[in-house]
Specification:
The protein is an alpha+beta fold. Helix content is about 20%, strand content about 30%.
Amino acid sequence: MAEVRIEFDVPAEMRDGTVLRSDVYRPGGTGPWPVLLSRLPYGKQMALAIALLDPLAAARRGFMVVLQDTRGRFASDGEWEPWTYEKSDGYDTVRWAAALPGANGSVGMTGASYFGNTQWMAALSKPPELKAIAPMVTWSDPDDGLWTRGGAIELGITAPWSLMMGADALMRRHSADPATLGGSLGSLGRLVQDLDGLADGGYGELPAGRFPAFARHDLPELGYERSRREPDWARSSRVAGRHDEVDLPTFQVGGWYDIFAQGTLDNFTAMRRAGRSATLIMGPWSHANQQHVIGDVNFGFGANSAFMGMRGPLHGLQLDWFQRTIGDGEALGPDAGRVLLFVMGINQWREETEWPLSRAMDTDFHLRADGRLTQEPPAVAEQAEEFTYDPMDPVPTTGGALLMTDEFRPGPLDQRDVEAREDVLVFTTEPLAEDVEVTGRVKAVLFAATEGPSTDWVARLCDVDEHGVSRNVTDGIVRVRAATPGEAAEYVVDLWSTSIVFRAGHRIRVQVTSSNFPRWDRNLNTGEPEENATTARVARQQVFHDPARPSRIVLPVVPPA
């Protein structure tokens, strides 16, 4: 089946009369064929959209492929409004795609990030022809990695994404009026300047909760400010708590260094709890990099999504799955679905039947005096650690599960410059006598105090190799209001999940600080709402470790086989 016919900009009318346009790839012959649909706001002919699915390969496998520009984007009509129409447009598009000439009436959906979420929204709308979805690197709760994390604003992604999406919006705004086109080009130039200047100072504009660049260009922002202003709108991209409404098999793909890593895992576990067939693949990848070199680390060619440890390319595994869910392959049973995890450190793929792993045991590693990290808790009172947090001199973002401007690389990076700062506390084990596998969700329990009415606590898990190079594994943040400034309280920092073997001879390290900027906005230590705060104050921070206040990190340790 070598012949593939492509039809460009095929119109589909939505329920309100708005016309959206799709490129349709048909196999040779007359069909009928199952349909694979992807709805994205980045341009249906963009390289990423085509690379994720490879419509030509899918068509040669006997699928009709439909790639659609979402409302208000590129070839589609209407006004661009993030998330607002994805549920209704998703429903209408699935029904339209299922009735295309040559279609057999069964539709599956594919795509990553925003166009992973368009799948969930369509699934929640329940078009009868939708039979399976395959969301990749997609959030579950937008307040856990998309708009905010632990109460702090995800400034690293919200600022560039909103500005980037605004470029097309500005051009469309004036395209119908040639008299204003010159002004539009000028506005576009200023928007590009703001986008290019984020790393050189633009990220630092205040107030972070009402980001000045959005107001300058009158852009539909990603979500923090508007989600607070319009709760109904905020729910339009939320999957969390609604999985019972999705009675479909799912094929979910994520990466340990992806900004939506925990969202992928949460979506998978919720679907399993609901009794649905669910498959999970977690690589060592970042949001836009599914190759084998992430950050400073080469995880081996087997980690590459084109190879998958001799399993074949990731898109091939996905097409095999679609063959069984909407094609003519052997149907999946109700409890079918596998878990494929990449275990960093030993750099191996491992098949499991569950997530989280029931055999993983939560194990406390205690923060101790003199920078020690031990499984033994403090038996006597130990001197509290102190540092000064100045919001105008924050700890710079250095690696991690992030999606920011290109100056900020995601993944595992050398942390030695970060750890040399006086406002970063460091706690380290002795060299390990044997391998220690950590697979599951990590949290830090801090007994801490701040002088200010509010502050942030950031915890980071690191792997220190035999040469002393410390590289970040996973991290998290929590924004707190101090009931009584200067008084110790217990705070839990969610570091999300990982899978790594700390090799014998390596050391486990924990960083504790109060900022990771500009990934997360700075807490100005004043207690003012983020929408208004423009004045910062310096605060003295304390972290306690004594028998009554045992600060620690909790690691899900997997016993040796």
